[in-house]
UniProtKB/TrEMBL annotation, chains A, B:
Residues the record lists as 4-aspartylphosphate modifications: 56
Start-end of DNA-binding region: 134-232
Provenance organism: Mariniflexile fucanivorans
Domain spans labelled Response regulatory: 7-121
Gene Ontology annotations of biological process type: regulation of DNA-templated transcription
Record GO cellular component, one term: protein-DNA complex
Assigned keywords, A-Z: DNA-binding, Phosphoprotein, Transcription, Transcription regulation, Two-component regulatory system
PROSITE patterns listed in its UniProt record: OMPR_PHOB (PS51755), RESPONSE_REGULATORY (PS50110)
Domain OmpR/PhoB-type: 134-232
Keyword Transcription regulation: yes
Domain of life (superkingdom): Bacteria
MF terms in GO: phosphorelay response regulator activity; transcription cis-regulatory region binding
Protein name: DNA-binding response OmpR family regulator
Length: 233, 233
DNA sequence: AAGCCCTTTTAACCTTACATTAACAAAAAT
DNA sequence: ATTTTTGTTAATGTAAGGTTAAAAGGGCTT
């Protein structure tokens, strides 16, 4: 069994601090890629798979939140930790809204950071036992590739899916023939559960149904008040 | 619609602060049980299932860490958040070691706490893909799936059941051939026992009888003044 | 900055699903 | 006999979901 080092994307514009942090993490057995601003961070993120992203909030060109949002569009699961300059409540709240897993106030203690990282990785480890490579699905005569965000019918031309369409169909596929609770999709994809996000989700269900009706054996059923069910007859 | 509130165990020895925090959380739609020390906290924990534990670190009799360890022995999954008096690095590290999900330094901002709770619950949401076997019943020639809320006759087309129909039939099935007391259904399903809910229940019994008459071996009998009995001959 | 494309949200309107209540009939208990 | 409980059907009001279209937002190009 080959032990794979965990890969961390560190986006931090202060060069001194960035290097120090990077070295410290590498000394502790992480594989660290350091980007010096939001732009570069996103480029690097697209090129590889990371187990964790550590983002500075204050950065030129593209701040940490904007970057986080972009990262979230491509990947709803990767843990994100923010580094905020001080205890700025605004920042913290904003961070959680874009789906942060945690945040740290600068200056912070490096051991604390390490523990946080460990805790987060551990959390992921328990979750990610089964769904590690769950990006490709066969749904009746369709093939869904949720990494590349397309849907093919009978091996024909792929139709591109928007991020939300993709995530929603992926969640449904993960629960094929079973209940996919409304609340699950709303918390996982929309990160909020209110009247409007709920209506938004219904709109997406309608869109997916449109795509899926090419195969009349495939349908999305509603379970009133509970959620939806993707069935393949 | 019947909404299931998330249940929080709050263990905090400062009575004023505890009450205030409890009220604040309840205002935000959580179901909160407040324990005043570690001992009491553990007692309450054993008696019920919680979605989250919020533990003060400094407490008489039994501190938060000891309590957390005990809780972890019984339940490896429930998220734990610590409240630490100040930025005590020792505490934070120790907290993560016993498997905390997060910590908050007192005094903390209540909105921040709320966001943390939300984030933690979101994380949990994915894991909770519960197993189905306890939701399936065989009733004569019928199959009841009370998770997906349908009833099949001889493996034919499933008939959809409404939430109340479903819950009622499930309760009857749990007591198959035995008395299912009126009061039980009223308190469990209707959460209230009065003339009108009682009449409402009778209406649902009539609906269920209609579904079930496809199999003349299955019937719902009334036990006057007591309740109903689902019998399979 | 203006315009365009893509995605997402919001709004509107309509349909379906559900639970409750009323009304009256039938059984059972007193 | 009459009061209470149960059986059943139908009517009503409300909430949830289906669908389409318009508005809003963001990035990118010119």
């Amino acid at each position: 069994m080959e032990e794979q080092k965990k890969k961390i994307l560190l986006v931090e514009d202060d060069p001194n601090f960035g290097i120090i942090l990077k070295d410290y993490l590498m000394m502790n057995d992480y594989d660290v890629v350091h980007a010096k601003n939001g732009m570069e961070g996103f480029e690097k993120f697209k090129k590889d798979d990371y187990d964790l992203c550590i983002l500075d909030v204050m950065m030129p060109y593209k701040d940490g939140f904007t970057l986080a949002k972009e990262i979230r569009e491509k990947n709803t699961d990767v843990p994100i930790v923010f580094l905020t300059a001080k205890t700025m409540k605004e920042d913290v709240l904003k961070g959680y809204k874009v789906g942060a897993d945690d945040y740290l106030n600068k200056p912070f203690d490096s051991e604390v950071l390490l523990m946080k990282i460990k805790a987060i990785m551990q959390r992921k480890a328990t979750e990610t036992i089964s769904d590690s490579k769950q990006f490709e699905f066969k749904i009746g005569r369709f093939d869904l590739n949720s990494k590349l965000r397309f849907l093919k019918f009978d091996g024909g031309d792929p139709v591109k899916l928007s991020p939300k369409e993709n995530e929603l169909l992926r969640l449904l596929a993960l629960h094929e023939n079973d209940l996919m609770p409304r609340e699950l999709a709303l918390t996982k994809i929309w990160r909020d559960d209110n009247y409007f996000t709920s209506r938004s989700m219904d709109v997406y269900i309608a869109k997916l149904r449109k795509y899926l009706k090419l195969d009349e054996k495939v349908e999305i059923l509603n379970i009133h008040g509970e959620g939806f069910r993707l069935v393949v007859n």
